């Protein structure tokens, strides 16, 4: 007996044998049993899913000697002839080779004659979409009103090419792809019929490669059975067909997940040396990553994965998240499209796996946006937390600001939280110079500060504020006048008008005509910033106060090297605060960076600071020359500024108690937690509201004081 391929040997002979097409089978069976037989049918669907087989079964059901019946016997003369394709009343026409209008005219002439021995004359036209437009037009009238003994059955894989006029005259049945589980069961039955053992994994691989087509599955099964002998295994399929295999894919993707680029490239060379084609290798890698992505999504169905869940590497599953796996899958899909026009497909393959080796560091735009959105909410509440931190530091003697305060924004500047005795300004500046700088200072402040949270608060000069904690000074002269008193000296009396420290605070008539009194009034009524011309006229003050100057009540300030070293104990913090406040009026961004530095140390002409952030050190080093020039003008001598990096260890309890959003930010931006606020979100919001209210009050006071200065002038 001649050899018969599996696809022909296992062609269905009745409706119950149609695999995966239960809807079509049941509909046709019911129409036959109820004697509601249409004159034209249109079967559509992908290749190898049973369209032609269904047409032959329908022809046998209608012409069976026991019929019309839904279960043809298959033994009568008509059933046997239809099965062998020898029936004169069942005509199968290949639409791809009979496309002309003359072929259709021949059909029109034949339908005038009744069937010879059967009940119906049935025309089965396969690949009907290949007919020409004139042929379709010639067939329209015949399909619409055929003789009662003629039935047309059309089959096509491309429904969109069939004219709508043909579709409207036919009952349309859509055939579907056969599920992988069903294909695997049919293959197991085929193997059992010929006495071949087959592993489940091998049958699943054949079913997946068939992509839902039973004919393709049977064809591939015959090929595998030819070289497998009496047992079909996945290892034989992998070796004979040049597949990579899940074990080898586990090894190479473990190297990629571990950033071992060299090992991954060497494995690629080994695969290619063994004869595996680049296209096949990319296809296997794509299937592998697809299955890993399914497992990460919780899908463990073996028919979808192609392998059992345990065959896939746990290291790859834990190293990459779903977003990174999607990125890897898109890289390979794009690689398959690019190699068609590439100078060297192998170079493209090696480049793709080099990119996969650092995939663990990939952060998607969606993750970055999410992190930024959550960081925004944290930073909006940070000014209140920083203000509370600054107040706590101001309460401690010789306290130094650091970057350990969680959530401190870039533009946030410290607020003075305690009363500081005032000092007289240098007499070299006249009231006219202060008035000229007044307008430019206010313009700069209004342009650079948001209205809701001003960075600098005006100094109140009302009598009610005398003796109360003063606001933050805004320039070097006001910082000199508000330098903190030494911890071992009692505070100066606030109500004694004869005391030198209260002379320009109260603005007595005895000194109103002097330059010191004019400077004090202007400094309290406006945010003062000396212009560049004033910087040139500025000279360091004489350490010995003149008759017109006021003897300071606090400790001497290390200014321009004029104070002996034994008198400057504990004044480095004063120098740091004063210098930053002066710089804030000219370069707010640079002053903000300096504010995040630690303690300053002045050794001769060198001022050094400490930072605990590598990024902050790089930022300050880039502007070191500019900072040195500012400090030189500030001190009246040549100053060189340098910054030192101070490594800080993160306590474990801080990371454990930090909010979830902070941990996510650190993970997304590769950051480190150096501290966090102990306040609740409600307390932070309340402090922010109080600060905004106080800012509005101070702004109104500033406007009133500015108008007073203009009237006096």
The level of helicity is 40-55%
Report the major sheet: 5 strands, parallel
Question: How many DSSP helices?
Answer: 32
Mean pLDDT: 73
Structural class, judged by helices and strands? alpha/beta
Query: Rg, please?
Result: 45 Å
Structural notes for this entry:
This protein is α/β, with parallel strands linked by helices. The protein contains 32 helices and 10 strands. Strands 2-3-4-1-5 form a 5-stranded parallel β-sheet, covered by helices on one side. Strand 8 (600-603) and strand 9 (606-611) form a beta hairpin. Helix 20 crosses helix 32 and helix 26 runs antiparallel to helix 27. The longest helix has 32 residues, at 681-712. It is elongated and about 120 Å long.
A few lines on this structure:
This protein has 713 residues and is α/β, with parallel strands linked by helices. The longest helix is centred in the last third of the chain and has 32 residues, at 681-712.
Q: What's the arrangement of secondary structure elements?
A:
Layout lengths: L5 H4 L12 H12 L6 E5 L6 H13 L13 H8 L5 E5 L6 H10 L10 E6 L6 H12 L5 E7 L7 H4 L3 E4 L5 H14 L3 E2 L1 H11 L3 H15 L2 E2 L1 H8 L4 H12 L3 H13 L4 H19 L5 H4 L8 H6 L2 H17 L6 H13 L7 H16 L1 H13 L36 H18 L27 H6 L21 H4 L8 H11 L6 H6 L34 H13 L3 H8 L4 E4 L2 E6 L2 H9 L1 H12 L4 E6 L6 H6 L2 H10 L11 H32 L1
Parallel strand pairs: 1-4, 1-5, 2-3, 3-4, 6-7, 9-10
Antiparallel strand pairs: 8-9
């Amino acid at each position: 007996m001649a050899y018969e391929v599996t696809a022909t040997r296992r062609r269905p002979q009745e409706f119950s044998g149609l695999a995966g097409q239960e809807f079509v089978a049941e509909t046709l069976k019911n129409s036959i049993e109820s004697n509601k037989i249409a004159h034209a049918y249109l079967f559509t669907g992908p290749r190898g899913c049973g369209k032609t087989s269904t047409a032959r079964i329908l022809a046998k059901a209608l012409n069976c000697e026991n019929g019309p019946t839904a279960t043809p016997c298959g033994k009568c003369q008509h059933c046997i002839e239809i099965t062998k394709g020898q029936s004169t009343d069942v005509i199968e026409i290949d639409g791809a080779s009979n496309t002309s209008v003359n072929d259709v005219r021949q059909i029109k002439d034949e339908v005038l004659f009744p069937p010879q021995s059967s009940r119906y004359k049935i025309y089965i036209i396969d690949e009907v979409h290949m007919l020409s437009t004139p042929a379709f037009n010639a067939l329209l009238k015949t399909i619409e009103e055929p003789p009662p003994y003629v039935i047309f059955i059309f089959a096509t894989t491309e429904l969109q090419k069939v004219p709508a006029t043909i579709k409207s005259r036919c009952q349309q049945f859509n055939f579907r792809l056969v599920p992988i589980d069903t294909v695997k069961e049919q293959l197991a039955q085929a193997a059992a019929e010929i006495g071949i053992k087959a592993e489940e994994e091998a049958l699943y691989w054949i079913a997946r490669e068939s992509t839902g087509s039973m004919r393709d599955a049977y064809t591939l099964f015959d090929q595998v059975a030819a070289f497998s002998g009496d047992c079909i295994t996945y290892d034989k399929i992998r070796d004979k067909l040049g597949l990579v295999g899940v074990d080898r894919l586990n090894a190479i993707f473990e190297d990629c997940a571990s950033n071992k680029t060299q090992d991954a490239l060497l494995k690629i060379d080994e695969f290619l040396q063994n004869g595996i084609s680049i296209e096949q290798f990319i296809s296997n890698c794509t299937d592998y990553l697809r299955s890993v992505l399914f497992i990460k999504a919780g899908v463990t169905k073996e028919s979808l994965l192609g392998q059992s869940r345990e065959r896939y590497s746990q290291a790859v599953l834990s190293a990459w998240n779903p977003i990174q796996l999607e990125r890897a899958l898109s890289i390979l899909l794009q690689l398959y499209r690019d190699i068609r026009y590439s100078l060297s497909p192998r170079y493209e393959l090696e480049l793709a796996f080099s990119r996969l080796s650092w995939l663990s560091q990939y952060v998607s735009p969606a993750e970055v946006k999410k992190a930024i959105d959550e960081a925004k909410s944290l930073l909006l509440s940070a000014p209140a937390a920083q203000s509370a931190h600054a107040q706590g530091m101001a309460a401690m003697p010789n306290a130094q600001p650091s970057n350990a305060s969680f959530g401190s924004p870039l533009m946030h500047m410290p607020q003075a939280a305690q009363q500081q005795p005032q000092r007289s300004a240098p007499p070299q500046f006249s009231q006219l110079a202060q008035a000229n700088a007044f307008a430019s200072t206010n313009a700069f402040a209004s342009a650079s500060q948001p209205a809701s949270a001003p960075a600098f608060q005006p100094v109140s000069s009302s009598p009610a504020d005398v003796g109360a904690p003063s606001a933050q000074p805004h320039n070097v002269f006001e910082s000199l006048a508000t330098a903190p008193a030494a911890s071992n000296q009692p505070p100066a009396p606030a109500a004694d008008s004869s005391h030198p420290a209260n002379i320009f605070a109260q603005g007595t008539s005895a000194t109103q005509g002097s330059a010191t009194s004019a400077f004090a009034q202007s400094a309290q009524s406006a945010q003062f910033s000396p212009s560049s011309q004033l910087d040139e006229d500025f000279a360091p003050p004489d350490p010995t106060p003149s008759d017109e100057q006021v003897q300071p009540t606090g400790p001497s300030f290390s200014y321009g090297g004029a104070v002996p070293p034994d008198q400057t104990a504990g004044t480095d913090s004063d120098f740091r605060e004063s210098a930053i406040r002066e710089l804030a009026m000219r370069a707010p961004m640079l002053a903000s960076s300096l504010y995040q530095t630690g303690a300053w140390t002045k050794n001769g002409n060198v001022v050094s600071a400490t930072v605990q952030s590598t990024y902050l050190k790089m930022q300050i080093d880039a502007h070191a020359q500019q900072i040195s020039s500012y400090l030189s003008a500030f001190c009246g001598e040549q100053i060189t500024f340098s910054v030192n990096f101070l490594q800080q260890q993160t306590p474990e309890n801080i990371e454990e108690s930090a909010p979830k959003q902070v941990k996510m930010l650190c993970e997304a931006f590769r950051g480190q937690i150096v501290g966090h606020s102990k306040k609740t979100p409600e307390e932070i919001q309340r402090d922010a509201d109080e600060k905004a209210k106080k800012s509005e009050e101070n702004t109104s006071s500033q406007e009133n004081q500015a108008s007073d200065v203009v009237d006096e002038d």
